[in-house]
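Q: Sequence in, structure out?
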Amino acid sequence: MSKVVKGILIVFVTIVLIMLIGLGLGLYYFNKIINSSNIEVPVIEVQEIQENVSAYNEGEAVELPEFTEDQEKALSALGIDPEKLNEPATQNCIVENIGEERITELMSGKEKPGITDILKFKKCF
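A: Exactly. Output:
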């Protein structure tokens, strides 16, 4: 291999390594920021979830629990109007994007919303 090709290969490998390290650090700090937020997800009893799903299936809007001031600020920071969450069109969009099973997991407190959930949720606003 000529010296020029070796030099190009070394530069290319170095750039790829820097990009991978940057991506890894970015994901690490993003995860750290997401997990360090003290935003509590409201926990709803399973029976209430089943009633809400039944009401949703009948075409009714589901009344969500009141948000704390911190939760409202967090939603607003994400560009989400908390008042729109009680609108049937918004709820339909959320169920279509996230799915009933995942919503049940999140609302019961078994799971915390991840970045994928947030991105799917954000599509409705």
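The radius of gyration is 21 Å.
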